[in-house]
Specification:
The complex is a heterodimer of chains A (about 475) and B (about 230). Chain A has about 475 residues and is α+β, with helices and mostly antiparallel strands. Chain A has 17 helices and 11 strands. In chain A, a hairpin with a 2-residue loop joins β3 and β4. Chain B has about 230 residues and is of the alpha/beta class. Chain B has a single domain, classed as P-loop containing nucleotide triphosphate hydrolases (Rossmann fold, 3-Layer(aba) Sandwich), CATH 3.40.50. The chains are: A alpha+beta (about 475), B alpha/beta (about 230). Chains A and B meet through α2, α14, α15 and α17 of A and α2 and α3 of B. The complex binds adenosine-5'-diphosphate and magnesium ion.
Chain lengths: ~475, ~230
């Protein structure tokens, strides 16, 4: 540490002309030995700085840690590479079908929409068309339906997503056990760990290869039978038929932490092949419940994965031009960044209070030090110190306090952050969250904290140093 | 060497103003000291002895008149130049020793070398040599509180001379010491004066000691030189 300072001092000195004979390293060394002689005072003052810098460091590392977690997890999952495409509002098939044809206004709108805007139906043909677009790596339709899961004599109601095998094998799916299904026609599925936990299953490896029953609900075709309708209304019967299918558990997925963006947000994932054959009601829109199957043409949404973020804008434009709505998470990044900025500013304000208190402590200590060392200043001048020399001695003492405060403050911040991180994880992991570092210590934060501490301390030492330099040696040395 | 004096003052006057009242601490002092001389200064309390010393030592600036040292007008230097004068050309010792209580004897002696830009190792080496000269090398790591008054004054002498000045200004250096210790200190100064040609100006109330060691003695009263005696 001392070596580093001395080396820095020598470096700085080289630039100085021969007019100033005292080397900065000598001043710094002298400051260290002066401060060592007043251990308690130095300790107390430095401690103030340590607290301030410690607060600043832990605040910042928390802010940065959270931000890093959010952006990293988005990046790691490649979520910035996805665009969701859906029928533009007012044209969603649910609403179209729901419109009362007797309402003339709606009639007009409906016709206008279907006539003028020839927005395509999101079906397999359109999917194929999208896949041809430059920059599109893959595209798949969003299909989700409710189902009853039966396993180990336990039942759970859950949401099933149909996801192609290649998406399952991508970084979007984090598996805790087993592996993703190999093909789109395989009769196996992936189940979320949280669903298993709800069924009191803790050993995820053990369920791999086991059989699981999926019961779907399908709209009862006799729904319009008045007799049946009566019993439904009396609550005796549900307007659904149940069909059961058996699957093999291929893998256990990790529950998504943050940013559960469109494609993967269900409890059970299965390949398109078997899903197609199942009798089910699609559930992407609550209104779908009440639609007869024929009216449900096309998918509710399509997810496009681009090969690079740079294609996002052009693809979004193409979709919009065709009258479709789009959503890309990357658009949200700006808003997220603004939110982060506010968070930073708040943390900064809190830390600034600490720093202000610490610098007042330094000013106080240095002014006290001048009063206490009044005679010493006189002696300095008597033995040949110039005003500048005296100024520098006090100035560098503040700087050294800042340096020590910065180093130990950084250490304190790190310790506090680590402890909080451990405690937080202790509780959050229990609740099923993955172990996360909520604090981040980038190199610039470490260097910045120490540098900032030195700067603030030098600033605080400025006034006392000027005052010390002005001491009249004749008065200071007069013996009484 | 300049024949009209190694150290010379002409019409040296210092007036302190306390609000509306002006205190004339020193009035029209004309001195000429040759190199290697031992000048004694005496006079009652408040007669302006310390004021004269501070002016000669470059700690204070005269209200009027001039000070010339080695052919250079000290009274015309700016603050920065004055600090160089204090650093290299004069050494000062005081009645109250004025050594830094938190420093060891060695650190005290080495202190002036810091401002001369000497490296720490060299500072300690040279301070050790000076302590050797005043016979205190075995006490180099002791703090002032652990030293007797005489020893502390020796540390102060070593410090005053560490930058090898040609002039030593001593403001009542024996004022806080008993008679035998006082004698030893003045004897040390006299030896430095004889053996190394150090020019010494010393304030003292002990006329017998001045008569024994000084070449000339001046008497101050109310800021004026009232008597100049040539002893040898
Ligand atoms: N800084 C000062 N401000 C005002 N008056 C001073 C100051 N220093 C000395 N004096 C006055 O100048 C006179 C000479 O003081 P001084 O030189 O200390 O005398 P001595 O050292 O002979 O006892 C005294 O009357 C003293 O009160
Ligand atoms: Mg006096």
């Amino acid at each position: 540490m001392m070596l580093f300072i001395c080396a820095m001092g020598k470096l700085l000195n080289r630039k100085k002309s021969g007019k100033e004979p005292v080397r900065i390293s000598d001043y710094i060394e002298h400051s260290f030995s002066n401060l060592r002689k007043k251990k308690l005072r130095t300790f107390l003052t430095t401690f103030g700085v340590v607290i301030g810098i410690g607060a600043l460091v832990s605040m910042f590392s928390f802010g940065k840690g959270v931000q890093k977690n959010v952006t990293d997890s988005f990046k790691k999952m490649g979520l910035f590479n996805y665009i969701a495409v859906y029928p533009s509002s007012g044209r969603s098939r649910g609403e179209q079908a729901n419109m009362d044809p007797d309402d003339p206004q709606n009639q007009i709108q409906y016709e206008q929409v279907s006539d003028s805007a020839n927005s395509p139906i999101l079906d397999d043909n359109f999917l194929q068309e999208i896949r041809e677009i430059k920059g599109v790596e893959s595209a798949f339709a969003e299909i989700r339906f409710p189902a009853q899961i039966r396993f180990n004599e336990k039942e759970q109601f859950s949401l099933v997503s149909v996801i192609p095998a290649d998406v399952c094998r991508s970084e979007l799916m984090k598996l805790r056990a087993g592996k993703a299904y190999e093909g789109d026609d395989e009769n196996s599925l992936i189940i979320n760990d949280s669903l298993l936990r709800r069924m009191d299953i803790k050993d995820f490896e053990a369920v791999i290869g086991e059989q699981i029953e999926v019961s779907t609900l399908a709209m009862d075709p006799n729904l319009l039978n008045p007799m049946k309708l009566m019993s439904i209304m009396q609550g005796e019967n549900l307007p659904f038929n149940q069909e059961s299918y058996t699957f093999t558990i291929a893998g256990v997925a990790e529950r998504m932490g943050m940013g559960g963006f469109i494609p993967v947000r269900s409890d059970v994932y299965m390949p398109p092949g078997p899903a197609e054959d199942m009798k089910k009601i699609s559930l992407t829109n609550i209104k779908d419940f009440f639609q007869p199957a024929e009216k449900l043409k096309g998918y509710s949404a399509i997810t496009i994965k681009v090969s690079s973020v740079k294609y996002i804008d052009s693809i979004k434009k193409q979709m919009k031009d065709r009258g479709l709505g789009t959503f890309a998470l990357i658009d949200q990044l700006k808003e997220i960044k603004t939110a982060f900025m506010f968070m930073d500013m708040f943390l900064l304000a809190v830390a600034m209070i600490g720093i202000t208190v610490a610098s007042l402590g330094i000013i106080n200590t240095m002014v006290m030090s001048i009063l206490e060392r009044y005679r010493e200043i006189g002696i300095m001048k008597a033995v040949g110190a110039s005003e500048n020399d005296v100024k520098k001695i006090f100035f560098f003492e503040s700087g050294v306090i800042g340096f020590l405060g910065g180093i130990f403050g950084l250490a304190l911040g790190w310790v506090v952050s680590t402890v909080i991180n451990q405690i937080a994880n202790h509780f959050l992991v229990k609740q099923g969250a993955p172990y996360t570092d909520y604090f981040s210590f980038p190199w610039w934060l470490c260097l910045g904290a120490v540098g900032f501490s030195i700067l603030v301390s030098l600033g605080a030492g400025l006034y006392p140093a000027v005052r010390a330099a002005r001491v009249d040696p004749v008065v200071a040395l007069r013996h009484d | 060497m300049n024949s009209d004096g190694f150290l010379e003052t002409k019409g040296l006057t210092k007036v302190y103003s306390l609000g509306k009242i002006n205190v004339v601490a020193l009035e029209d002092v004309n001195l000429s000291v040759e190199e290697g001389k031992f000048l004694g200064v005496t006079g009652p309390s408040g007669s302006g002895k310390s004021t004269l010393m501070n002016l000669l030592g470059g700690l204070d600036t005269p209200s009027s008149g001039s000070i010339k040292v080695e052919g250079k007008f000290i009274s015309e230097l700016d603050k920065e130049e004055l600090s160089l004068y204090r650093r290299y050309q004069v050494g000062m010792i005081f009645q109250t020793f004025n050594i830094i209580s938190s420093y060891t004897a060695l650190e005290n002696v080495a202190f002036p070398l810091l401002f001369a830009g000497v490296s720490k190792r060299e500072r300690h080496h040279r301070a050790g040599e000076m302590l050797e000269k005043v016979g205190l090398i075995n006490r180099k790591d002791h703090r002032p509180a652990e030293l007797s008054g005489g020893e502390q004054q020796r540390v102060a002498i070593a410090r005053a001379l560490v930058n090898k000045p040609k002039i030593l200004l001593a403001d009542e250096p024996t004022g806080n010491l008993d008679t035998s210790t006082s004698r030893q200190i003045v004897q040390t100064l006299a030896e430095l004066n004889k053996n190394q040609g150090l020019t010494i100006i010393m304030i003292s109330h002990e006329l017998s000691m001045l008569a024994e060691f000084a070449d000339d003695v001046i008497h101050l009263c109310d800021g004026k030189v009232v008597e100049q005696e040539k002893i040898r």
